[in-house]
């Protein structure tokens, strides 16, 4: 796939803004990548619409190909959609805090229950009680008890012939009486979603009133992921999702599908059968995996770095020519703001440490940059190109337009003159001088 994509990107060499044809061409390959990653069809469609909206008309920087630009946008939207920050298990409620695990049979509920319990005990110093409400599968309760002994977390003693609801009640009561912080309710699954399962889950939920209701889903869940998540969310109500078997070759498209339809965060991922194989969810890592291109992040970062470097190079080229009118100053101030202030810009240019001090002397600190831009933006294009036009009446008009005083405008003009002189002395000075080099 990577090759196919690069082939498309190589073709997209036009400069300027991304047009619809560029974007559509790149999106065709990206849609294929998403489908291969098992992202649900509906989600692929609306996701690519979202990318198209953002991408068409977006600028392409000279050193970046339109294809790379689309990749950056796809990656950005993917990470945004997956949720940018990791969301931990929420325990902010009066103990005993119930956590209910739901999902299909074999998804990894019981295993994940024990993994989470272990983590809460070890990292958060919580007293945890686990209870299996699975009365369907033979030995399901025994399975949790075995895992409990392994991770040294208590499990509710098994009593025969109880309904899931009765077990839940016993678990909550035991937790209250014995001062547990957290009760983990491991429920039964089915091989597919059916009404009795949903009813059972809804009943348990309304009785136990869990603070977290986590859907445990296999990362290999393909087109069913949407139905699965939607059903559980609508009937039971979810607070988050745990994606298991991310150690396998699942591409994690289910994460995007489920997040997209429910809006619920992916809280954790299971990465193996061992009790420590539980990771925080990392949107960028999953985005990487879904797109199926190991080098995607590197590509994106390179593109982003290229954007800044390109702008800095343009600025340096103007400086080197000794050409520096108010419009240049305005552009440069905008750029300076974008790349993290004057210090950030100077860091991008080789050998200009000296200039930092000079600019500091010229009193151009980051706080005044916004105001200075406001002043310049109130000028006509001619005035920006030719500051000599600025006589008293024009200054008054500009002051009114930008909400500043005439004296602020004079200050700006003086600074501009100082800077222009400085640029000249650096640029037009020796051949191959500092700024000349930076501009090459
Ligand atoms: P449940 O029916 O939802 O309770 O599923 P189980 O917790 O019993 O898990 C079913 C199988 O999946 C077990 O053999 C687990 O060891 C395995 N399993 C669960 N989570 C993971 C995971 O993240 N990675 C791998 N490789 N196996 C897992
Ligand atoms: Mg189970």
TrEMBL record:
Keywords: Cytoplasm, GTP-binding, Hydrolase, Nucleotide-binding, Ribonucleoprotein, RNA-binding, Signal recognition particle. Part of the signal recognition particle protein translocation system, which is composed of SRP and FtsY. SRP is a ribonucleoprotein composed of Ffh and a 4.5S RNA molecule. It comes from Methylocystis iwaonis. GTP binds at residues 103-110, 186-190, 244-247. It is a peripheral membrane protein. Pfam families: SRP54, SRP54_N, SRP_SPB. SMART domains: AAA, SRP54, SRP54_N. Involved in targeting and insertion of nascent membrane proteins into the cytoplasmic membrane. Binds to the hydrophobic signal sequence of the ribosome-nascent chain (RNC) as it emerges from the ribosomes. The SRP-RNC complex is then targeted to the cytoplasmic membrane where it interacts with the SRP receptor FtsY. Interaction with FtsY leads to the transfer of the RNC complex to the Sec translocase for insertion into the membrane, the hydrolysis of GTP by both Ffh and FtsY, and the dissociation of the SRP-FtsY complex into the individual components. Belongs to the GTP-binding SRP family. SRP54 subfamily. It comes from the Bacteria. This is Signal recognition particle protein. Residues 265-278 form the SRP54-type proteins GTP-binding domain. Composed of three domains: the N-terminal N domain, which is responsible for interactions with the ribosome, the central G domain, which binds GTP, and the C-terminal M domain, which binds the RNA and the signal sequence of the RNC. The gene is ffh. NCBIfam families: ffh (TIGR00959).
């Amino acid at each position: 796939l990577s090759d196919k994509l690069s082939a498309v990107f190589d073709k997209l060499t036009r400069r300027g803004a991304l047009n619809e044809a560029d974007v559509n061409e790149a999106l065709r390959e990206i849609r294929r990548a998403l489908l291969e990653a098992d992202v649900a069809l509906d989600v692929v469609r609306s996701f690519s619409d979202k990318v198209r909206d953002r991408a068409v008309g977006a600028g392409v920087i000279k050193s970046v190909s339109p294809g790379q630009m689309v990749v950056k946008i796809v990656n950005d939207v993917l990470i945004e959609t997956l949720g940018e920050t990791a969301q931990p298990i929420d325990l902010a409620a009066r103990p005993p805090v119930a956590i209910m695990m739901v999902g299909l049979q074999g998804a990894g509920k019981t295993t994940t229950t024990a993994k989470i319990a272990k983590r809460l005990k070890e990292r958060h110093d919580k007293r945890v009680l686990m209870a299996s409400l699975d009365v369907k599968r033979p030995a399901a309760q025994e399975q949790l008890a075995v895992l409990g002994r392994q991770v040294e977390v208590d499990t509710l003693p098994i009593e025969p012939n109880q309904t899931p609801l009765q077990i839940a009640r016993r678990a909550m009561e035991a937790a209250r009486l014995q001062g547990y912080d957290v009760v983990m309710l491991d429920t039964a699954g089915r091989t597919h979603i059916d009404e009795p399962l949903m009813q059972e889950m809804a009943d348990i939920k309304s009785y136990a009133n869990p603070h977290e209701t986590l859907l445990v889903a296999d990362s290999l869940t393909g087109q069913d992921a949407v139905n699965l998540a939607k059903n559980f969310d609508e009937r039971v109500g979810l607070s988050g999702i745990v994606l298991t078997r991310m150690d396998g070759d699942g591409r994690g498209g289910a994460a995007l599908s489920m997040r997209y339809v429910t809006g619920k965060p992916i809280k954790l991922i299971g990465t193996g059968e061992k009790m420590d194989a539980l990771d925080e969810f990392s949107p960028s890592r999953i985005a990487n995996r879904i797109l199926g291109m190991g080098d995607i992040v590197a590509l994106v970062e390179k593109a982003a770095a290229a954007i800044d470097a390109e702008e800095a190079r343009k600025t340096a080229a103007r400086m080197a020519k000794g050409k520096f009118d108010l419009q240049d100053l305005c552009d440069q101030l905008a750029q300076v703001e974008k790349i993290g202030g004057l210090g950030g810009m100077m860091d991008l240019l080789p050998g200009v440490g000296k200039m930092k001090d000079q600019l500091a002397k010229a009193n151009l600190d980051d706080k005044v940059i916004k105001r200075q831009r406001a002043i310049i933006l109130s000028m006509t294009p001619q005035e920006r190109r030719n500051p000599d036009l600025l006589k008293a009446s024009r200054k008054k008009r500009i002051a009114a337009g930008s909400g500043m005083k005439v004296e602020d405008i004079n200050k700006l003009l003086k600074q501009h003159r100082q800077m222009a002189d400085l640029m000249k002395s650096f640029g037009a000075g020796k051949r191959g001088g500092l700024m000349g080099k930076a501009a090459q």
